[in-house]
Design brief:
The protein has 1 helix and 12 strands. It is mainly beta and 144 residues long. The protein has one domain: Deoxyuridine triphosphatase (dUTPase) (Deoxyuridine 5'-Triphosphate Nucleotidohydrolase, Chain A). The strands form 4 sheets. Strands 2-3-12-7-9 form a 5-stranded antiparallel β-sheet. It has a 3-stranded antiparallel β-sheet with strand order 5-10-8. Strands 1-6 form a two-stranded antiparallel ribbon. It is globular. The termini are far apart. 20% of the residues are buried.
Amino acid sequence: MERIKIKYFTDKIEKLAYIDGKSDWIDLRASETVELSAGEFALIPLGVAMELPKGYEAHIVPRSSTFKNFGIIQTNSCGIIDGSYCGDTDMWKMPVYAIRDTRIEVNDRIAQFRIVENQPKIVFEEAERLEGADRGGFGSTGRQ
């Protein structure tokens, strides 16, 4: 089991923990209250920084209820925290865009993350033809 050093920037958010039996993703919480008007952008502080093990990165995405509950979308779809983002002041944040006026309170669960091993080194080999079966191109699998 890997050990990860974590720094909390506030004692106002719950400590990180797995939700046993439900998911291997871990919830992240807003570490300060943020008010946004429709059309505004913000970096919502998540109150943690970590030293990830060598060869790993973190993927941060919204929780499934984040848009419904708060009317925000993550502007970069998936946030990647690489292993070099590990300093004492490197607090994780979530870049968001508000679709409607909203208020996010301290300790609201707005994101989730998982730790993923870095992609292995690869070499691209150019080919005139690919051997796999054609699926009809991007977007060809229909609506249902």
